[in-house]
Amino acid sequence: MTLTLEDLVQYLRKNVPQPKAIKHMVADDKAKVITFEWQSRKFAVQTSLQIFELKGTGLFITGASSLLQLILTSKTRNLTVIGEVYDTLSESMNLLNGDQKKGLSLLQSVKTSLTRMVGKQVQKKTPAQS
Question: Measured between alpha carbons, how far is residue 117 from residues 57, 61, 77 in Å?
Answer without folding.
Answer: 41, 29, 12
